[in-house]
Amino acid sequence: MIYNNQVYQYVDKEGKNRIRVISIDSAILYYVDLHGGTAMPKKATIEDMEIEIESNVLIPISDPFLKSYAEEDLTEKQLERRNLNWEIVFKAWSQSKESILSKKNRKTAFLEIAEEHQITELKVKRLFTRFWQRGLNKNAMLPDYMHSGGKGKVRELSQEKKVGRPRIYGEEEQGINITEDVKKQFRHVIKKYYRKSEKLTLNDTYQYLLKEFYSNKYHEGESVKYKVWDKSKVPTYNQFYYWYKKTEEPQLDIQLRYSKKEYELKHRPILSHSALETDGPGTRFQVDATIADIYLVSSFDRNLIIGRPVIYGIMDVYSRLITGVYVGLEGPSWIGAMMTLDNMTMDKVEFCKQYDIDIDESEWPAHHLPETIIADRGEFEGYGVEQLINNLNVKIENTSPYRGDLKGIVERQFRTINEKIKRKAPGAIQKEFRERGDRDYRLDASLNLEEFTKIIIHLVLNHNQRTIEKYPLEKAMIKEHLTPSPLNLWKWGLSNRKGSLQTVQNRSILRLNLLPKGKARITRAGIKFKGLSYGSDKALNDQWYLKRKSERIDVVYDPRSMDKIYIPYIDGRGFDTCYLLEMSSQYRGESLEEIEFYQQMLQELKQAESLKQREERLNTDEEIESIIKKAVKQKKANANVSATKGEKIKDIRVNKKAEKAMNRQKESFDLNQNKKESPAQVVSIEKENEEVEQSKTSSSLMEKLRKKRDEEFGKDQ
C-alpha cells in the first residue's frame, strides 16, 4: 500500500535516490525528488510503483525531514518568515493544486502566484520545493538559519536560554522501532555489502546502512560529506546486530563471503564416514602427494643441499592400511604418481629389502590393485590415465578442485607423518618465515634421499600396526575383540568381507598401462617421436617404412630415459620395443626433459644463424645489383648505335674464341712467379727461343682473330 507523504529510496541509484509522494489520485500519483534547490512533481502509476516496492527496488524509509519543533524555541523572525511563506503556499496549493501538478499548466500557475504576491517565479518554485520535500506541513516553510553564519566566527549567545537539544544524563538511546520497512533496509545492506568477497564486518555494514538510509549528503568545498540523522531517528547497532543474528543464514554467508568450496571443505556438517563407502579391503584406495618439510643432501656429496623431496602415498579406505609409497624428487607429477602405483603392486618384502629393512609378509601384505582409486585432478587427468588403467579394470575418481576433504584419510595421515619428521630430523622446516637473526635450518640438512626413504618406510610400518582412534567398529568386530589397527582390519576384511583386491601377474604390463602415451609417425627414416628416430624388428620385417609411410601410431614411453619406446598391442597385454637409431644416438641415455632442452637450444641457434644469413643474402644481392648496374651503365656509354641486331649477334663464336684466348693468357700458371731467381741463374738459349716462338704463335693467332673481326664489322666500327 502506498501512502501520501511517504518517503521511499531507490537502492540501485547513487546519491539522488530519495522521493516523496505528494499526491495520490485514483491510479495516478505524483512525487518529487528530495534533492536539489528546485524539484518539480513527476507523474507515475500506482501499479508501477507497487511493482518496484514488491521487488525491493524501492524501499520505504523514515522521513529525513521529520522534526519536532517547539514554538517557544523558534525566534520571532523564524515564525514571521514561516507564516508568510505558508500563507502563499497553502492558499495556492488549496486552490490551484491540479494546475501546479500539471506540467503543462504549472508555469502559468506559478506566474499568477508570483504576480499576486509580488515575488519572482523562482521564489515561488523554491517555496513549493521546500513544501513538497519537507513534508507538506507548515514547519516545512521554516528558513534554514542553521546553515547560516560564518565558519570560525564567535557567536554571542544569551545567558538566559541554552541553545541545542536539552541533555538528559543517564538516558539510553533505544533507536527507532524495527518495522518491516526498516527490515527491508537491513536485508538490502546485508546483501549488498556483507555477503560479498570483500568480507566487510557487521560494523562496516551498519555504517553503510547509515550512509544510504539515515544521513544527508552535502558538499563542503570539493569534498562530499554525510550528516547522520539524530540518534532518535536511526536504528542502533545493537538493534541491527540483534536482527541479523535472529535471521542469520550461516551457510549462505560463508558461501557468498568465501566460497562454496570453503564451506564444503571446512564448515559442512559431517554426518558420515569413509568406511561406509566400502565393502572391504580394496574397494577404494586414496592417493595423495605432499612436499616434505625437510631439506635433503646429495647422495654423493653431503655438502650439496638438493631441496625438499616429494612423498606419495596410497591408503586403503576400509582398513587405513598404507598400500603404496614413493619418496623421490619427481613431482608432484604423473611420474611420481606412476611410481607410487607401481610400488602399490610390488611385493613389500622385496621393496623393504632394497633399503636393508627385513620384514615378514604379514607386516605389510599389500601388493594389489583396487577397484577404485580416488585422486586429485592434476596428475590423474593430464595423461588420460583413466583409459590406461581401465585396461586393468581399475576406476579413477577425481575429486573436485580444492576438496581435500574428499580424500581426508590419506591427507590426514601424511600430515601426521610430516609433523613427526619435522620434530626429529635435521634440516626440517621449523616455521614458514624466519625472523631476522634466526639460523637457516637448511644448513642443518644431513639426510640423503635413501636415508629419508628408510625413515618413511619405518613410519609406514609403524602406522600399519597402530590402533586407530574413533574407528567405526562393526558389531562382528566388537564380538571378536578386534583391535582396530590397519593390519588387523585388513586381515579381518579379507576373511569376512567381499573386498575387491586384484593381483598383478606381470608388472611390465602394469607399467605399460601407466607410462605416458604419445603419437609417433612412420617415415622412411624410421619411426619419428619427439624429434628422435626409432626402429624395430617388426617394423623392418613387415616393411612399415614402405607400406605404412606417414601413418601415425600410438606409443608409450618413459620420459626419464628415451632410449626405447613401446608400441602396445590392441588388447593392452603386450608390446613391441623400438630402439633409438644411430642418427639420434647423440641423445642416448638422456631424459625427455634434457632432449627437449637441447632441441630448443638448437632451434634458438638456428634462428640466430638464420637472421645472420638473411643479412648476408641482402648484402650479396646488393653487391650483385651494383655490379649489374655498373656494367649496364658502361654498355650504354660505349653502345654502337649504328649496328643492327643481326650484326651484334653474328660472330658470337668468333668473339668467344678471342675472349677464350685472352682469358687463357690471364689464367695460365707460372710456377716461378713466387720463386726468387738466383742472380747467377743461366737461361738456356733453347728455352728462350721456345718461349719466343710461343709468344709469336700466340700473337699471330690473336692478330688473325682481330683481322677476321675487322673484316666482318668494318675497321672503323
UniProtKB/TrEMBL annotation:
Residues 654-717 are annotated as: Disordered. Keywords: Coiled coil. One of its GO terms (biological process) is DNA integration. Residues 588-625 form a coiled coil. Residues 654-678, 708-717 have a biased composition (Basic and acidic residues). It comes from the Bacteria. Pfam families: Mu-transpos_C (PF09299). One of its GO terms (molecular function) is nucleic acid binding. Residues 277-494 form the Integrase catalytic domain. This is Mu transposase, C-terminal. It comes from Halolactibacillus miurensis.
